[in-house]
Give the backbone structure.
Amino acid sequence: MPTSRPTRLRPRAADTALLPHHGPTPALAEVHRAIVSCDRCPRLRTYCQQIAVTRRAAFRDETYWGRPVPGFGDPGARLLIIGLAPAAHGANRTGRVFTGDGAGGSGDFLMTAMHASGFSSQPISRHPGDGLQLRDAFIAAAVRCAPPDNKPTPAEFERCEPHLLAEWNALPRVRVVLCLGTLAWASAWKLLGVRGYAIPRPRPPFAHGAVVRVDDSVTVLGAYHPSRQNTHTGRLTASMLADVFGTARQLLRNA
């Protein structure tokens, strides 16, 4: 894979639309502009742009987003959900995380669980204009570009950390952080340390359903990532994910 700096794609109106369905706060708008224009990882930028050009046959008539993907949701969210990275033909196509991977994909699986607990207005996530709204929740990712084989390198995680940190800092009401998978779990704990929280030593291990109270202001939850690999094998069931969101809802009621 070439490692030279990729040529920037021509700006589009969507680049400044910033994608969240709620009107972004000035702080979030600034963060999202920085994310969309980021080119810190040449390997990822090259890959995303190549996918945007070649496209999948089912989407050959669509214009792919092909850029780093900001988070989306409620600027007043108390629940922050952290995923891994955009899917090559999902968020890299649509420009919205957990969106566009089809019926039965990770987006619908996640939104079904969120909808059951009142965090989402509908149980599907197909495209940015589908009417989906998040309530008291915001979804972000540890890495903002689709990686080859869904495997960002450690250096790519590190270069992308400032985006997640900036987005988190722009969400002042967050009280519960839900990490989808071990890599999101690791990112969350690292950034909690950066934000000045006292981190338990040793760091709590990831587990589905894990609940770790950091202090009176923040609790961290763990859940398996709703990837097809997990949902199609039964490692993660709909009821398992719904239970985690039920826990998040109960924690927020008691906050």
User: Anything to note?
Assistant: The chain has nine helices and six strands.
